[in-house]
Amino acid sequence: MLAWIAAGCATVQQENGAQRSQFETLVAPHRQKAAELAAQGRLREAGNEWKVALTIDPKDSVSLEESKKIEEQIRQAVADRLARGEDALKRGVHLEARNHFLAVLALDPSNRQAFDALQTRVRDVRQINHTVRAGESLASIAQFYYGDRSRSEVIWETNQLPPNPKLSPGMVLKIPEIPGLPFGRPEAPAVARPRPEAPATGGTKPETSEEAPYANPALTEAKEASEKGDYVLALATIDRFLGQNPRSSEAIDLKRTVLFQQGKTLSDQNKLTDSYAALNQLAKLSPKDKAVTSLLTSVRGRLIQQHYNQGIRFYREEKLPEAVAEWRAVLQYDPSHEGAKRNIDQAERLLKGLQARQQKQGR
Amino acid sequence: MKDHKRRLWIKRAALCAAALYLAGCGAATQTSITPSTEEKSTYETFESQDYFVVIAKAGDTAASLAARFLGDKSLAWMIEDYSGGATIAPGQQVVIPRKPWDLSGVSASGYQLVPVLCYHNLAPQAKGRMILGAKAFEEQMRYLKANGFRVINLKQFVEFVSLKRQLPQKSVLLTFDDGYRSFLQYAYPVLKELDFTATLFVYTDYVGAGSNAFSWADLKKLAAESFDVQAHTKSHGDMVRAANEPAAEYDRRLEAELTLPKALFQKNLGYEPSILAYPYGRQDDTVVRRAKERGYATAFTVRRQGSPSFVDPLRIHRSQIYPEMNLDDFIKNLNVFSREEIK
After folding, report:
1. Cβ-based contacts of B49 with chain A (< 8 Å)
2. Which of A160, B36, B131, B196 lies 20 to 30 Å from B15, alpha-carbon distance?
């Protein structure tokens, strides 16, 4: 008659060789899995495996030792990430705080402090700004970013738009990431997925897609600088990041967005030369983007007109060298500008005439 | 005698495990259950505070093991979700968690999402944007059933977003807005057949107001049948302040939208609603703050995405299901996991 020993769990009755051998067979897969998970940094899951091993053999010294070790590692990591999360919140870097608090819950899924922080104190920060282009609707924007027109409700709700809103070109909309969906890749499908921990039975192959945009704090800082209108700082931050990560699609996308906003803002402020420089840089990154081309053409046209008119003003004031300089500037933007060429010819002839007259008088 | 002892042990184990789960999902200390010798001869079983480890026999399923060891076959998902599969072979080691192990649904690979689906009116044929055809609805419900989704009730969902309950990985919450009586004819029979439940958000001006409106008696009967009935304001007006709306007027309007339903629910159903669905999903900080002040602990928008456990409880997302959606479109609203490497 075998007697089950209650206190502390288990089933170990006699530690004879046969029984230990049986335990070894049953415990071995859990030991192996625990070690693999720990090596991957999945401490909680590793800890669970050691607990399962100890359920089978509560006196297994390896499991006891490793289990304690993992628990201590988890305890330290949780304390560290909580402190770093709180610090990030104090600094107002919400995305970083979010990552720390999520990491705490991944280690300790019932951690109340991290949960409450995520629920009540961490803002929803994963979003980008989209400047509406002519002909766009919420549905078409949703299709572009999420691959699903019906997600327009998310954009509508995020931007607190009235029912059936009318979009106008130039309007800036916040486009948030939707958890569980790829972001910014129009072709990406959205389907229910099994948990990644699940073994191959019926599971979907894990995606190798890139992570959501702006996961890096540097890019978050750049985004925040851009939202405050500090485009120079934003671009410098992005360029620094690209120096380290030249193929980062998130950074390139963000740079496009910032350059467009910078170009548009400067254009609105009539700082056309700077606007043109930003948009020209953007056009090299997005040569097929019609909105960019359209804005660039518009700014270029205004710049040409501005320099041309300024040349006329100088001419009327008999400041011929200045007038010529303005019309030459026109030709930089439009080498075939007939009016500028004609005026330059005329002004230069006059200048030559004047110079010849001055020389005669000098003699 | 042997049979008696075995039944006794299983009953004790089942009741204890179920009680611990229902009482607070793992917060309680675990009581060790001592299996009898006879039981060991029946099942090769190991147990600790956290787990049973069982060597499966021919014919065992997650449901049969959940019934035997957790006292409730509907907890089969705990076995399936823990091991990542539903198939159990004879001789296989099966780990049966005795308490929730993942309350927040967050892991190193990402986090759990619960889709909340939002329906309105149903009719034999679809019409416009808000009347869904009965056949399409039935097809969607059968899809959920056939694909292992578990329709949870509102209380379970609220506990999930309060870190008090672990939910099955493929959980879904069904909601019906406004208070259309067509629910009884087209949704109720399907839901009953599939053993699904749902939450009804009604605006009180509409209750009893027409041939397709629920009466209070209808709602009382449904509430008694474990359907949840909660508030959708008084008049279904946009709760966000309108342009040029005088402050005092808006204040009175908002107050009426939030408090009058409470009195009517109390009078007709015997309880005050504590959960709100914003009309059109529209809210802002003012609306949210006032809803909270008036005793609404949880509130729903219509932002089309699933909700993690740590969602703002006063801005929970819902996905509206429209008649023009085909089954593939419907399935897009069933994301149950947000993959994100959490380091």
Report:
1. 9
2. B196
Reported confidence tier of residue B289, pLDDT bands at 50, 70, 90: very high
What 8-state DSSP symbol labels residue B50? S
Quote the CA–CA distance of B180 and B262 in Å, as a whole number.
Answer: 20
- Angle formed at CA B137 by CA B134 and CA B139, multiple of 5 degrees: 110
**How far apart are the C-alpha atoms of B254 and B238, rounded to whole Å?**
9
Sign of the CA dihedral with B188 first, then B191, B194, and B197 last: negative
A99 contact residues in B (CB cutoff 8 A): 342-343
Helices of type H across chain A = 17-39, 43-56, 61-91, 94-107, 112-116, 138-146, 152-158, 217-227, 231-244, 249-268, 272-285, 290-316, 320-333, 338-362
Is residue B173 helix, strand or coil? strand
Residue type, B72: D
DSSP string across B195-230? T---EEEE-TTTTTSSTTB--HHHHHHHHHTT-EEE
B123 φ, ψ (degrees, to nearest 5): -155, 170
Task: Name the β-bridge partners of A66.
Answer: none
Rounded to 5 degrees, what angle do the CA atoms A214, A215, A220 make? 50
d(C-alpha A307, C-alpha B49), whole Å? 82
User: If we measure between CA atoms, which residue out of B326, B152, B105, B318 comes closest to residue B232?
Assistant: B318
**Interchain contact, A102 vs B111, CB within 8 Å:** yes
For residue B233, pLDDT over 70 is answered with yes
Radius of gyration (C-alpha) of chain A in whole angstroms: 33
Beta strand pairing call for B337-339 and B110-112: antiparallel
Q: Given the cut 0.90, state whether the ipTM is greater than it.
A: no
CA atoms in the 13 A half-sphere facing the CB of A243 = 7
Tell me whether B52 touches chain A (CB under 8 Å).
yes
Q: Does B146 touch chain A (CB under 8 A)?
A: no
B:289-328 residues touching chain A, CB 8 A cutoff: 301-306, 308-313, 320, 322, 325
Q: In terms of residues, how long is chain A? A: 363
| Chain A environment of B86 (Cβ under 8 Å) | 201
Please compute the mean of the pLDDT values over residues B2-24 and round it to a whole number.
40
Is A107 within 8 Å of A267 (Cβ atoms)? no
How many helices (H) and strands (E) chain B has is answered by 12, 16
